Amino acid sequence: GAVVSQHPSRVICKSGTSVKIECRSLDFQATTMFWYRQFPKQSLMLMATSNEGSKATYEQGVEKDKFLINHASLTLSTLTVTSAHPEDSSFYICSAREGTARGYTFGSGTRLTVV
Amino acid sequence: AQSVTQLGSHVSVSEGALVLLRCNYSSSVPPYLFWYVQYPNQGLQLLLKYTSAATLVKGINDFEAEFKKSETSFHLTKPSAHMSDAAEYFCAVSVSGGTSYGKLTFGQGTILTVHP
Q1: Interface residue of A25, A37, A102 to substitute, partner B, most B CBs within 10 Å
Q2: How many residue contacts between A and B have a Cβ separation below 8 Å?
């Protein structure tokens, strides 16, 4: 079946630094990638949607200059949290979709802790 | 815009008992509906999905859900709970058109506890 590999699974960084999270589709072409964040005991909130080769579309309230999304190829999308602060600590999950298919494959998530 | 409401943030059942997790949706266009399971510190695994074919959808691990348009519901059931079913379950909706095309909107999640 479709697999999305997400790395790193856990990362701890200092305030003010940047962190990059990668999601790779291993056996399909991810034309669309979705990035979510999940706070403890809460549901997934969509941050942005990106289509390969295009700029990401951010949800209301999500700072596009803070959460940089790159989807330069059909198998790789990255989320960079810039100038991270403790309030950015969260669980980040990517989800990939091939074409207009009704299947969404999720990565295993990244636990970001900013100290 | 679409939305999903999961009734009950926590459900507790005995091993071997029926599992029923409730989900109601709101959508102005025909929806696609999904149930996902999440284990701690992991991503989401698809249990089943409704995409306008049969209203009774069978998924993995004996889970199934029935789409009821009149009730705007998509409840998840399993005849006999296993200890390994203990996890958090999310209902989600996406739509086929409009500005929200392709986006998944999740419910608040239901934590299922299975006790011996």
Answers
A1: A102
A2: 49
